[in-house]
Amino acid sequence: MGELANIFIKSAFIENLALSYFLGMCSFLAVSKSVKTAFGLGIAVIFVQSITIPVNWFINYVILSENGIFGIDLTFLRFILFISTIAAMVQLVEMVVEKYSPSLYNSLGIFLPLITVNCAILGGSLFMVSKEYNFSQSLSFGIGGGFGWFVAIVAIAAIREKMRYSNVPAPLRGLGMAFILTGMMGMAFMSLMGIDLTSFGK
Amino acid sequence: MAEILEKKAPAIEFGKEERKLLTDPLNSNNPITVQILGVCSALAVTTLMNKALVMAIAVTVVTAMSNAVTSMLRNSIPKQVRMIVQLIIAATLVTIVELILKAVNYPIYKELSVFIGLIITNCIVMGRLEAYAMANRPWRSFLDGIGNGLGYGIILIIVAFFRELLGKGSVFGFLVIGNTSDYLINTTSSPWLSWYANNNLMVLFPSAMFVIGIVIWAHRAWNKSLVDIS
């Protein structure tokens, strides 16, 4: 249990997908204008992330690997199968959101289908493969990675809401300032990289 | 029947609107600084100008071709599975580009390999497919793809120029500034020429955010209509 908690904290804060690896920047910058929409997108990312990573784990180790059901090494199909899983899951989320929360659906706009090409999702699945997690570890990693992305987008949305009352030069207002703020938050998160979690949970 | 055929515009024409499709993304509708698409790869490949140039060409080719193909198929793609179809079109084209690059220039391919694969998840491709190609005719979608690829490329080159110059002291791999004896004139001996020490922060990710932020600042100061009034 301690090990799973370690993976959660590590993927959420120390190796934050948004602020340490700068993945999923397009939607991160475009949807962080208000905390409300950022919150909705963040929840959607947690949901998609925590479903697709275990499903992709299953695909990678049961279908594609040499010890899987086909007995041949099919890893060259990894990209296409991963991206199809992600696309199918996002389509599902899109239908659910459209049905139950039309206002959130409208405010997310084009960025809901763009979760499919949110590099954080595909990146998460590929990190899961490269770190050789087992099933429960990859589940913890998926939830943690999604949670870290959620924290990052809500944090920057809150800062940007406050930014509206400050005296930023007109051409820098909005998007320009968001880029510079993200850079600064990234520098702040770089300082978390030295944390050692090996003794935690023992 | 004849009337319907007459009403159809010729398949390939190049008028005012078509030219606008090419020039708009360079300035007032730039994919990176205005539409905020394709930022992830812009952060990763801009440490060197060579990488940025090859990436810009690859993205232009993929965006243009996938726009054209999707636009040809737009009436037969069911709405519910459109994303999967679009992704498969993009993934196929990216694989073709990857194999061509591997055959033509292997060293650059090795440096870029991950990011060439990530063109599939580059938001510019999907964004343009969703926003333009699904509603317009193939020729125009093709031009729209080329325009957006160029708009992306121009920002990539600008950002890479500053990051490589300040981070490594070079442009396209040729040393330009800094304390070195590789030049015609040995700069190590002169205090006027050897003052610059490479700034390692410029190679790290946060500096890409700062440089793009400053590019946006300059772009909006020059083109006042883009200033964010909200």
Note the topology.
The complex is a heterodimer of chains A (202) and B (230).
Chain A: H1 2-14, H2 25-30, H3 35-64, H4 78-100, H5 102-108, H6 119-130, H7 135-163, H8 175-190
Helix pairs in contact in A: 1-7, 3-4, 3-6, 3-7, 4-5, 6-7
Chain B: H1 2-7, H2 16-23, H3 39-44, H4 49-73, H5 82-104, H6 106-117, H7 123-133, H8 138-168, E1 170-171, E2 174-175, H9 205-222
Antiparallel strand pairs in B: 1-2
Number of helices, where a helix is a run of at least 4 consecutive DSSP H or I residues of chain A: 8
Helical stretch count of chain B? 9
Order of helices and strands of chain B: HHHHHHHHEEH
Chain-averaged pLDDT of chain A: 82
Please count the beta strands of chain B (DSSP E, at least 2 residues each).
2
Structure summarized in a few sentences:
The complex is a heterodimer of chains A (202) and B (230). Chain A has 202 residues and is an all-alpha fold.
Write a structural description.
The complex is a heterodimer of chains A (202) and B (230). Chain A contains 8 helices and no strands. Chain A is an all-alpha fold and 202 residues long. Chain A is globular. By secondary structure, chain B is mainly alpha-helical. Chain B is 61% helix and 2% strand. Chain B has 9 helices and 2 strands, in the order ααααααααββα. A two-stranded antiparallel sheet of chain B has the order 1-2. In chain B, a hairpin with a 2-residue loop joins β1 (170-171) and β2 (174-175). In chain B, α5 packs across α7 (123-133) and α8 crosses α9. Chain B is globular, with a radius of gyration of 21 Å. The chains are: A mainly alpha (202), B mainly alpha (230).
Which terms summarize this structure?
heterodimer; A: 202 residues; mainly alpha; globular; B: 230 residues; two-stranded antiparallel ribbon; 2 strands; disordered N terminus
